[in-house]
Specification:
Elements (H helix, E strand, L loop, with lengths): L39 H4 L8 E3 L2 E3 L9 E4 L37 H10 L4 E7 H5 L20 H14 L3 E8 L20 H14 L6 E5 L22 H16 L4 E5 L4 E2 L7 E2 L19 E6 L27 H17 L9 E5 L9 H16 L3 E4 L3 E3 L11 E3 L5 E3 L8 H8 L14 E4 L6 E2 L2 H6 L7 E4 L5 E6 L5 E4 L15 E3 L16 E4 L4 E9 L2 E9 L9 E4 L21 E3 L4 E8 L11 E6 L2
Parallel strand pairs: 3-4, 3-12, 4-5, 5-6, 6-7, 7-10, 10-11, 11-12, 13-14, 17-18
Antiparallel strand pairs: 1-2, 8-9, 14-15, 16-20, 18-23, 19-20, 19-26, 21-24, 22-27, 23-24, 25-28, 27-28
């Protein structure tokens, strides 16, 4: 959650006015549904797990669109603000002591909460947790689950289990969200800035594998949201691709692959952009990168149709504004200061382009997994921002999740941002009860028209990068062992073929274009080629160059480099006959790629060669003559049929 606690010039702070809950009047639980919720009870049940992706859309197991209309049910990530006694509710966010479990279980029965979620028009829940929650062995206090006595005596993880079971049994999709390392309120300089701030990266990955295995038999647990709002700590920034201990790109890649390979192959892997870098002070570099780095460096998972990108937006923050007031505040514009057109342009640049630009190596669903505003907000600018923001999500048919879903409504305490607020006696107020100004914008968003039904198969393009490590994204190849020890290796995910290679830098492009589909035979190991024995007499397609070529009936799925020199190529046997024509694509002196830019710019700053979508790559040529370093120079492209 991006609402922040102001402690130092580096702490991203929430304005104090937003921490004060109104003394809202109680309303009966049986209130009219929102417009979006009229058919919600059936919407959440009419889908088949697991989920995957097709281009910019999330789809269910039948190939039908599944748009994430979600809410954040927080609490299990922690509510203590980090100062004072954790036993005093006054030291918890908005005076709400969650006891490390989802909020509201002391006030409303699980079936009541489920019914209210349906009335909001939701079909999915983002369910935050902390790594500390996993290992906490003390049972939660009885009063923390007063409205659900069946949960008494359970540990926080066991309560989390029960909530997951209740949600999925009621038809909701659940996305697990690793929100914090320690069980305390996020976000600022709180020891939870990065996935490895209060623990090792190895422990973080192991915890994710544990959680994935724990719920893998429950197919409506559909996603792993890897970490929340990666940001700067006191001294260091996270980065996207530098290859060090603060490299969020690499950490997400490795953890996502482990979850799919060791935990559950069914889960969507949700990677949030970087939330903040730099010191928030005028004159010093600072800003909110979000998903802008994805354009030049995108992820390719071992299951390539499981990637979802996410981003968070709040009106009181900005593209270069931390959200602080007073100490740590800069003169940068907040999102709520932007005009409607400016806001929409910035949202597109920072995140929404990833889904809007089809047929690129980075194209993927974008889930705006946090946004929100207070029911007690009276100022014109933030109210206008909320309408303009939700209108943009609606217009682009964007997946979303509101923060937060559940809060308290007690005299002097409670979260006014919650869509649903409950008194200690169980009475509800909020969006469902007729007096909440946010209802109009919410209803427009939740009921917005969008793509429904079957989603057509889309050509997919995925980047391979050997910048700092191997990119062997085929589980079949991984299982067979190291096929070129000591070399940097790049292999396409199972079901894809190599389409393009960069002249320098080691990057490649994979595809599963509809005209080719999954070419690989069901059995048989990939073949390593280190010489020219497959080049037939009279078949010299790159005269004077060394040519590593697949045998007839095989196609390229990978390559390896020693330094910058080509070391070997990896070939797979096709499940059907392949064409035998010959076309040499040279790219040693400039780009040589198909028109219409399929796959997009997969190696910025380097020359690139790429076969057409109707072709497959069958060979790679290079030279080590004087003045050359053995980098890829040409591809042998052949027709798929």
């Amino acid at each position: 959650m991006i609402r922040l606690l102001l402690r130092t010039a580096l702490t991203l702070a929430l304005p104090a006015a937003l921490l004060v809950a109104p003394a809202a009047s109680a309303a009966p639980s049986a209130a009219p549904a929102t417009a979006a919720g009229a058919a919600a009870s059936s919407l959440s049940a009419e889908w088949t797990a697991p989920l995957s992706t097709r281009g910019r859309y999330i789809v269910d197991a039948t190939g039908a669109r599944f748009k994430l209309r979600a809410g954040n049910w927080d609490g299990a990530q922690g509510s203590w603000t980090g100062s004072g006694s954790a036993a005093d509710p006054a030291n918890h966010h908005s005076g709400q002591d969650s006891h490390g479990i989802p909020l509201g279980l002391d006030r409303a029965q699980l079936p009541t909460l489920m019914a209210d979620f349906h009335r909001l028009g939701l079909n999915s829940i983002r369910l935050p947790f902390s790594n500390e929650m996993i290992r906490t062995t003390a049972p939660v206090p009885d009063d923390a689950v007063a409205a659900n006595p069946q949960l008494r005596g359970l540990t926080p993880l066991q309560v989390y289990d029960a909530v997951v079971r209740a949600l999925t049994a009621d038809g909701f999709a659940v996305i697990l969200n690793n929100h914090t390392n320690t069980t305390r309120w996020c976000c600022g300089l709180d020891g939870n800035e990065r996935w490895n701030s209060s623990q090792s990266t190895a422990q973080w990955e192991d915890d994710w594998v544990f959680m994935a295995r724990r719920y893998r038999d429950n197919k409506r647990v559909v996603g792993a949201d890897l970490y929340n709002e990666v940001r700067r700590d006191y001294l260091d920034d996270p980065n996207w691709g530098l290859g060090d201990a603060h490299d969020w790109y690499a950490a997400a890649q490795h953890a996502g692959d482990r979850i799919l390979a060791e935990g559950s192959p069914d889960l969507l892997i949700v990677v949030e952009g970087i939330n903040w870098t730099g010191i928030p002070a005028d004159g010093l570099p600072h800003g909110r990168p979000t998903l802008t780095p994805v354009r030049t460096l995108s992820h390719t998972l071992v299951a390539s149709h499981k990637l979802v990108y996410s981003a968070h937006f709040y009106g009181y923050t900005g593209p270069n504004h931390s959200g602080a007031t007073g100490l740590g505040e800069t003169h940068d514009a907040r999102y709520q200061d932007l005009s409607r057109d400016e806001l929409h342009r910035v949202l597109d640049q920072q995140a929404l382009y990833v889904a809007a630009e089809n047929g690129q190596h980075f194209t993927a669903p974008v889930w705006v997994s946090e946004f929100g505003i207070g029911a007690d907000e009276g100022a014109a600018a933030p109210r206008t921002w909320f309408g303009n923001f939700t209108d943009r999500l609606a217009a682009l048919d964007t997946d979303f999740a509101y923060w937060p879903l559940v809060g308290w409504n007690d005299p002097g305490r409670g979260d006014s941002w919650a869509l649903l607020r409950y008194t200690a006696a169980g009475s509800r107020s909020g969006l469902l009860d007729g007096t909440d100004w946010r209802a109009d914008a919410w209803n427009r968003l939740a009921a917005a028209p969008g793509l429904t039904g079957p989603v057509s198969a889309a050509d997919s393009w995925h980047m391979l990068t050997t910048d700092h490590a191997d990119a062997v994204q085929s589980l079949r190849v991984r299982a067979a062992g190291d096929w070129d020890g000591g070399a940097r290796k790049a292999v396409c995910p199972d079901g894809e073929r190599l389409a393009g290679v960069a002249h320098t830098g080691g990057r490649g492009l994979c595809t599963d274009t509809a005209t080719g589909g999954d070419l690989r035979a069901a059995t048989g190991e990939a073949v390593v080629v280190r010489d020219e024995h497959n080049v037939p007499a009279g078949g010299d397609w790159a005269s004077g160059y060394t040519k590593y070529q697949c045998a007839q009936g095989q196609y390229l799925i990978g390559y390896s480099l020693r330094g910058s020199r080509v070391s070997a190529v990896l070939c797979a046997t096709a499940r059907r006959p392949l064409g035998t024509g010959t076309r040499t694509v040279w790219f040693d002196r400039g780009d040589n790629r198909p028109s219409a830019d399929p796959g997009g710019e997969f190696a910025h700053g380097a020359y690139k060669g790429q076969c057409a979508p109707t072709e497959y790559a069958a060979g790679l040529a290079f030279t080590t003559r004087i003045g050359s370093s053995g980098t890829p120079d040409a591809l042998l492209c052949r027709p798929l049929s």
